[in-house]
Design a protein that fits this description.
Structural class of chain B: alpha/beta
Largest interface: A-B, 99 and 86 residues
Number of helices of chain B: 4
Radius of gyration of chain B: 17 Å
Structural class of chain A: mainly alpha
Number of domains of chain B: 1
Strand order of the largest sheet of chain A: 1-2-3
Number of strands of chain B: 7
Oligomer: heterodimer
Strand content of chain B: 15-25%
Shape of chain B: globular
Distance between the termini of chain B: 14 Å
Distance between the termini of chain A: 21 Å
Largest sheet of chain B: 5 strands, mixed
Largest sheet of chain A: 3 strands, parallel
Radius of gyration of chain A: 21 Å
Strand content of chain A: 5-15%
Helix content of chain A: 40-55%
Shape of chain A: globular
Number of strands of chain A: 3
Number of helices of chain A: 9
Number of domains of chain A: 2
Helix content of chain B: 10-25%
């Protein structure tokens, strides 16, 4: 982000950035930067809070008044995250092995029932918000869990997206499934709590369990790319917990 | 909390090992007065219009987000950050409605017709060519101010 700011400033644009990693801003020295002590994924602080979002933007734009730079200012508010993380992270002990994988079809049926149970909440969320973030994979919602389950069984279904190979597409399928659940839950229950939503999806839902099974299978997969995405913690949110998954190279750490 | 000194050891190690590009001369462009600002957002959230090509994991290219577009999907490679805020409100990551309100109230001059998204996980040193293309597009529509927002 700071480097992009440098490119645009050099091209004759006045730039200001908001940023999360203060040390990077200090090192790269973009012209104007506002450091945010917020959870990552929330650069404007809070969803559906126009006043708060304006407060962040105005604090950033005030930096245009500085006569010279580089300027780095700390936004005065802190939005805390548990245990110094950047967002929700799975408990380190919650790592499954293939020995713990049961009947995939039975779990898939439970996930599909869960999806049906959330459908009215999801549809209400889409109607209320006028948009959904589900759909990057281009699979229909009812096709998401079966696609993941096929990988758990050791199959490698075709990518649902033309021009995209199966494993990157699988990641989008996982994102879509997760988004379906959290879009439904945030709307239905009016909650905006990163820890609560993460714990619910990853530790309590059958969909989360299915993805944890996928992670366990991927750890032992002969498919190099599938192993790589768990090595690099690109399947489940483990990045800010205590270390790489047992059995991985930890190349992403 | 994302001061490296207070991060868990693993995250701190990863962030601190990222190579930092050396920029010889800090750039500086004098801003125009607030009421003359035409503002474009540059986001590194790897969002794009539904149906567009997804970002690759280390993408160096960019996508154009038209000002009125709200039907966006995210194809960022990382999974450790919160997605629920932008699911609820696009303005939590790309505050187009807020900028529009500021323009209507005269706090800024206007909001650009085009905004831009990059993949934040990629090395920004590989993005210079794309950034210069974006700069050219912004020049074409008289943008003079850029608001950069990570995710």
């Amino acid at each position: 982000m700071s480097v992009l700011a440098h490119y645009f400033e050099s091209a004759g644009f006045a730039t200001v950035l908001v940023g999360f990693v203060r040390e990077h801003i200090e090192a790269i020295k973009p012209a104007r930067a506002l450091w945010l002590d917020f959870p990552m994924g929330r650069p404007m602080g809070k969803p559906n809070d126009p006043e708060y979002q304006l407060k962040v933007i105005r604090a950033a734009f005030e930096l245009f008044d500085a006569p010279s730079g580089p300027v780095l200012v700390d936004f005065p508010d802190v939005i805390p995250v548990k245990d110094g993380r950047m967002g929700y992270a799975l408990p380190p002990e919650l790592v499954l092995s293939t020995d713990e994988i049961g009947d995939v079809d039975a779990l898939l049926a439970e996930v599909q029932a869960e999806i049906e149970g959330l459908r009215s909440a999801y549809e209400a969320a889409v109607a209320a918000r006028g948009r959904t973030t589900v759909g990057a994979s281009e699979l229909a919602v009812e096709g998401l869990a079966p696609h993941i389950a096929a990988f758990v069984k050791g199959d490698k279904p075709k990518s649902p997206r033309k021009g995209l190979s199966p494993i990157p597409a699988l990641k989008l399928v996982i994102e879509d499934l997760t988004a379906y659940y959290t879009e439904a839950r945030t709307h239905r229950d009016g909650i905006d709590d990163i820890e609560l939503l993460g714990k619910w999806f990853w530790e309590e839902t059958k969909a989360g369990q299915l993805i944890l099974w996928l992670e366990a299978v991927s750890l032992e997969s002969e498919d190099k790319v599938l192993r790589q995405i768990v090595d690099m913690s690109l399947v489940t949110p483990r990045f800010w917990s205590e270390g790489p998954l047992p059995g991985t190279s930890g190349s992403g750490w | 909390m994302v001061r490296m000194t207070e991060m868990p050891a693993v995250g701190r190690g990863f962030i601190s090992r990222l190579e930092m590009p050396e920029l010889k001369h800090p750039a500086w462009t004098q801003p125009v007065p607030a009421q003359e600002r035409r503002v474009a957002i540059v986001s590194t959230a790897a969002v794009s219009r539904r149906g567009e090509k997804p970002f690759s994991w280390l993408a160096r290219d960019y996508r154009v987000i038209p000002k009125g577009e709200r039907d966006l999907v995210m194809t960022h490679v990382a999974v450790e950050y919160d997605r629920t805020a932008w699911q609820q409100d696009l303005n939590a990551i790309i505050p187009l409605d807020r900028l529009d309100e500021m323009a209507q109230d005269g706090e800024i001059g206007s909001v650009a017709n085009e905004h831009y998204a990059f993949m934040g996980a990629a090395d920004p040193r590989d993005m210079e060519k794309s950034a210069l293309e974006v700069a050219e597009r912004m020049t074409q529509e008289d943008v003079n101010t850029v608001f950069l927002i990570p995710v």
